[in-house]
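Structure tokens please, single chain.
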Amino acid sequence: MIEHYLNAAIKQEQERAKILKGKISHTLPAIELNALHQTCQDRIDTTIDSLELLLTDPLILQKDLIHERIRLFRRVIGDLSLLETTAITALTRPHADDIALSKLAFKIHKEINFPLPPPTVTCLSREYFSINTSLRLLEVPLAESDFLLHLPDLYHEIAHLLISTRNNPKIAGYQSEYGKFLASVSNYYEGERIINRKSTGPKEYIDQALASFEYFWIRGWANEIFSDLFAIYTLGPAFAWAHFHLTAERGGDPYDIQVPGFMSHPPDQARMEAMLVGLNLLNLKKSADEIQKIWEEFINATGTKPTPLYRRACPLELLERAAIHALEGTKQIGCRIIQEDTSSQIHDILNNAWVKFWANPETYHEWERDCISRLKDGSSGS
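Here you go.
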């Protein structure tokens, strides 16, 4: 009976995939959606082919492989479900704000000489800014197209494509520097383990903590820090201010280290420390000092303090190395590195937004509304 059920369920999912393909067969409202449209078409075709193999391949139809057939069926359906709830939803319900932010991503790509095609942007995020690198789909919260202060996070999200994209010589220099940094992380923690073995303290606990910290860096933190630094190097202080804004609004303990457990993102304090190193490497000391001053005032106001584990997990040595490697990698792929006199439309808008916000919060919102309107209309607005 289970075999009969699977056969029927697989055929039903094939029909589902074909219906989804039909839902995106309409004429697109903007060329910015074309790449996502083609990706979805290709993914649906792959899904249908995979389901057909589960119906016809003699090997997988063997009775003693029923568990494997169920596993593969679930995986295919999971992939199709994710496609349906993200990219296909974006294509079937395109909104002017999606198109406006996709155009903005294209402008950013041109301004900074980003070596890869820009992602499609959709305002369907249920949380914060994020990117599905396999779909090249950048998701932002619904209202963010009408505000400026968080838009610097677009630079962070597109930087993730520089790590996830494979076999592209245009970004080999960036990935090489990333690899060098990962090697330095492993070397650093190996050195820390050697020191720990010679100490008189609780060796086993510290050894486990060090292993966790190394794993955090390799599996997530390095990618996030590099993406932060890419945004600093190609946009400037606006991204550090955006990080301050996000932490103030939604953050927890900026020194928090979760051991045991897994942390996909480094603590907010470490991220800010790396950004400040990056700004100083660009000789933007005045901006770095202003941001650090207000950041420290905010942290003091929250009453949070670093734990003993914080600095072991986020040593300044690694944050400084990350800043150096990320800067070299960004240079090697030909992206524009900002300077004090850098000027271009999106750079000026996003950095000027923070200048206006701090200078006159009472009138900022009127200026922002006008600027957003001009930006969506295609004029400068800066």
